[in-house]
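Tutorial sheet, problem 5. The three components below are modelled jointly, 421 residues in total.
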Amino acid sequence: MQAVLKHGGLSTHGQADISEEQRSGTDQWAAASILHADLDAFYASVEQRDNPSLRGKPVIVGGGVVLAASYEAKACGVKTAMGGKIARQLCPEAIDVPPRMEAYTEASKAVFEIFNDTTPLVEGISVDEAFLDVGGLRRIAGTPIQIAERLRKRVKAEVGLNITVGVARTKFLAKVASGVGKPDGLLAVRPDREMEFLHPLPVQALWGVGKVTAEKLQRVGLFTVGDVADLSEERLVSLVGTAAGHKLHSLAHNVDRRRVTTGKRRSSMGSQRAMGRRPKTHAEIDAELRGIVDRVTRRMRAADRVGRTAVVRFRFDDFTRATRSHTMTEATADTAPIMKASLDILDAMWPTIEEQGLTLIGLSIANLSNADAVQMALPFADLSALDHAVDTVRDKFGTNSINRAVNLGRDQGFAVPMLPD
DNA sequence: TCTGGGGTCCTAGGACCC
DNA sequence: TCTGGGGTCCTAGGACCC
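Model answer (structure tokens):
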């Protein structure tokens, strides 16, 4: 019996039909209950859906760089994040389409409604992909493979987009499966044949292995996931670092205990603008940064979130980058304090900018928390009053009393300056 | 190849506190 | 008085992902 099962679309594994035995869920497939659903060439597919004259043709969404390419354009070698000029050289007949973010957001919402209608355990990864845990749904909705089949049909019928679904026992493998199963496919990995499926794949298939790490691994003769699996954990750690080494070792041996989790909140929010190579005045850059601060703080308030750390990002003419950050004593979504922090950073960086030329500026607010969490902390936020009380106690009873008081307070759950998100 | 815009996580050094 | 070890926070940079 084959290690993978696939239908719809092209596949190197053939177009096996799904047998009743496999559907029944009483066989070796039983443990494979995580779905990774990934829309195909998302932006480009939305454009082809909304404009029939683009269907069947190479379509490139984006301006300076390729944001998305239709499968017809990918056939010429066009890839996401490629420079626009090269893309046009590779695919002169391609049709350029400017991005319509609202249309993509709307399509994404419609697809996520179907996800949420399928199972309560949905973990969104980005606008166009999510993990779904359907393990507990056998009695009411059928086996994971049956659920995946229905999900694909519904997305096609109700939103008009193709979606590829990977089905496996772990998140990592489900994601790899959807990647291999593209486009417009369903690919399930049988739990007792996982290594057969995983080990022949190139090292880039491992989550977290990009250009730099792949080159590091290839330099020492590691080209497939199987090659990496043959290495000891110590050797891997010495090669790519502690965290990455442990992670790679686990994934190569198909150890992935992460569960599908709902309700995750983003921990930073930001915005940036590329500004081209022409020289810019201080006034222009200042205005650009003010606009960005305004956008970001507006979005934070709309999302009911506040943040403590402002990170200003610079990219210079030679494409080197720098970031400068400032952490405030209190989390906020107000424009004024964030504006001040950002402009102060810009002023401090100005001599470097004059020297090197600026091609991009951005702002990101990190250490986000909920706005209501801060309100709960407000009674304790008067630092000068607190300082005075601390000084008084220290004078009267000595330093150790302060430590005991702080520890007592912590144990009792007050005197906490900020509640976590 | 001359380059978007949105994110996440990890590392490493220094300051500071106990 | 001198010294050490552990923990947390902040900052800057880098790799990676979609």
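Marking note: The mean pLDDT of chain A is 87. Full credit if you identified this.
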